[in-house]
Design a protein that fits this description.
Order of helices and strands: HHHH
Strand content: under 5%
Structural class: mainly alpha
Radius of gyration: 14 Å
Shape: globular
Largest sheet: none
Number of helices: 4
Helix content: over 70%
Number of strands: 0
Length: 72
Amino acid sequence: MDLNLRKAILTNIASNDQEQLNDTIVDAIQNGEEKMLPGLGVLFELIWKQSNQEEKQEMVNSLEQGVKEATN
């Protein structure tokens, strides 16, 4: 079976407005279910591709801080 997970996720959210996208992210994080991680990864990939270098550096800084806090 050929499953394109990225395409399936994008198809599922294609008609979502900003509020629905926000709810999707919040629900995925609050539920903490492993099965939601690929979807969050696809959403992050979209954000990353739309960001300029300054925004990317800000995300990396936030990620670094979050990792430090999560592992202490």
